[in-house]
């Protein structure tokens, strides 16, 4: 059979403007909250003001009597149909998992938990009546601090008997990929270098543009749910698995969704409650949260303490790494939840050749809202720790931070390389990315300026931050996820339908919420089938139209979903081949396919694939028995993760008198293999950088001693805008992935993963000569100033 022509063509690599943006930025889209159905009711949630309390009584009388109110439900009222919030897929058999009902009727375990719901004829009436619901609580002691949780002195869930959810470990010696880390540490204590540090990953709040919103219509043959979700397929599965509704009777639609960053990867109590109320009343219902509700009860990200021991020879050659995490899951085990810190297990060792390694995470419950994936999930935390440690090692050895990395990283001629954590990185070139970043940054000139400022005693000092990172993304082979006890597979599905008049329908199981899949997927299919970009329509985010899919998270959509498209397109071509052979009166084996045309090898006789599609409309030209269809399905399960990498360099100015920090320049050179659309990639990198920089400088969720979120609005939670950042310099090197035919690696989280340590390394570098070795994030002027004063961590 003739191979499909897979030469790169014009579409892949073309910086096309996103086709979806026209409707998104001109108000011609329909967000979930814009959906209005005849007779639709509006819901408002009554939420606990207490972090931990027993519910002793709920009086809904006044609310029921209020104008416009149709019904008020407590947890007991919908107990029969509310289902359970699908929470953890346990990390191991020992994991302790508290029950998690969407609306509990006996006890609340975090402030913001829902205790009643009002259904009314308008959103305003529902909100007003919610204030009239009178709930009696008996307050219980709450555990809010992660380290306190580890003592079990106060229990987040007394019934569990402990706050500990699970312990999970990866030991290189047991896995057979490395030596004994305890022995390496003992050896280093005898004359090598031992660096012991404790870093804090503060809680972050995903801040997507469109708050979460759900509409449920129970009146048709099927129950239809519209939701601002990243995961329509997973949501449908969870509803079917826990409410008793047959999967075939549930249609989930994710219309245009205004961002998620992991924060819409959860199946939420609000979705289950809206479904339950709609079914109880037999009427369409809508719930749209306020921004403060997102912040108080949506899931948060990060929240870890990291205890780290890195050991090395005196010349800086690393000999071992021990990682002990305490991870705060909040009140409940979420969909990925306990798996988030576990993702770090393969990433703390990063691009370096550690001969011995042990990773342990101990996950705890506290009385705060739950924690799950937030852009990068597990990998930013790991990258932060190792990149901070590499700077500490460089300082200890007395060499440049880039030199210490170069000494320890995997050289480009060593790929494929199986790391001490057992991951096989297929390709990469850390030397090339670093050389390019160094050049664009003007590394040597900036180091010279730094020296001059130090010597002159300038109150504004300059620091240079380095972050050479890799990440595992494109989750992942299903069998690997299975070994980790994840409840979902890592495959993706695609359907391609060649319509008869020249257009092509592409149906994907990925669920874009800002990533531009309609554009990028059109580019991939246009290239493969040789049809014009403009003739391709991408459909997604509706379980009726795209019944199979694993949705969008973990920078998986291109490397998994994009590859499924390639497989489906190749099947279309192979289905067209016998039809073309018949039309051309040639043998199928003598046909070549290129640029959308089959030609008989060695002649100019040919037929276009769109003409073949048209000819199947009548079928007049074909003999009996030929399949008259150019539609094909493909499901693709990747063979491995993809491993993008890059070098990020950041220059920060630190005013040693006030602690104020200013970003001077930021250069990143990312290697994400083949790039489908450089414009989309640029946007992804920019957005990712701002989120990572925000963790370093501004963002942090804070609770008071009662467990009230004090950063529950944008007045208190510092979310940066474009005005707070500088122009970034971005570039790319290319080491194609060998794990997929397009050679692509994911980009959706790269900027976030790499940038946080680059910024903090730069700040510490600026004031290291003053004795500062750490500044706790977010590095506010107060913390920086205190660190300088006390030459401590500036807590
Ligand atoms: N791309 C490309 N060439 C590459 C890699 C990617 O052209 N070598 C393009 C892809 O075609 C796709 C986009 O970049 O259009 C992102 O691709 P990918 O890295 O596969 O990531 P996903 O599409 O799976 O998106 C998920 C990722 C994650 S995990 C978070 S969090 C995140 C992110 O995407 N949340 C986002 N980017 C976001 N962007 C927006 N606007 N909003 C969010 O909520």
Automatic annotation (TrEMBL):
<dbReference type="InterPro" id="IPR046867">
    <property type="entry name" value="AldOxase/xan_DH_MoCoBD2"/>
</dbReference>
<dbReference type="InterPro" id="IPR016208">
    <property type="entry name" value="Ald_Oxase/xanthine_DH-like"/>
</dbReference>
<keyword id="KW-0560">Oxidoreductase</keyword>
<dbReference type="Pfam" id="PF01315">
    <property type="entry name" value="Ald_Xan_dh_C"/>
</dbReference>
<dbReference type="InterPro" id="IPR000674">
    <property type="entry name" value="Ald_Oxase/Xan_DH_a/b"/>
</dbReference>
<protein>
    <submittedName>
        <fullName>Molybdopterin-dependent oxidoreductase</fullName>
    </submittedName>
</protein>
<feature type="domain" description="Aldehyde oxidase/xanthine dehydrogenase a/b hammerhead">
    <location>
        <begin position="26"/>
        <end position="141"/>
    </location>
</feature>
<dbReference type="Pfam" id="PF20256">
    <property type="entry name" value="MoCoBD_2"/>
</dbReference>
<dbReference type="InterPro" id="IPR008274">
    <property type="entry name" value="AldOxase/xan_DH_MoCoBD1"/>
</dbReference>
<feature type="region of interest" description="Disordered">
    <location>
        <begin position="1"/>
        <end position="21"/>
    </location>
</feature>
<dbReference type="InterPro" id="IPR036856">
    <property type="entry name" value="Ald_Oxase/Xan_DH_a/b_sf"/>
</dbReference>
<keyword id="KW-0500">Molybdenum</keyword>
<dbReference type="InterPro" id="IPR037165">
    <property type="entry name" value="AldOxase/xan_DH_Mopterin-bd_sf"/>
</dbReference>
<dbReference type="Pfam" id="PF02738">
    <property type="entry name" value="MoCoBD_1"/>
</dbReference>
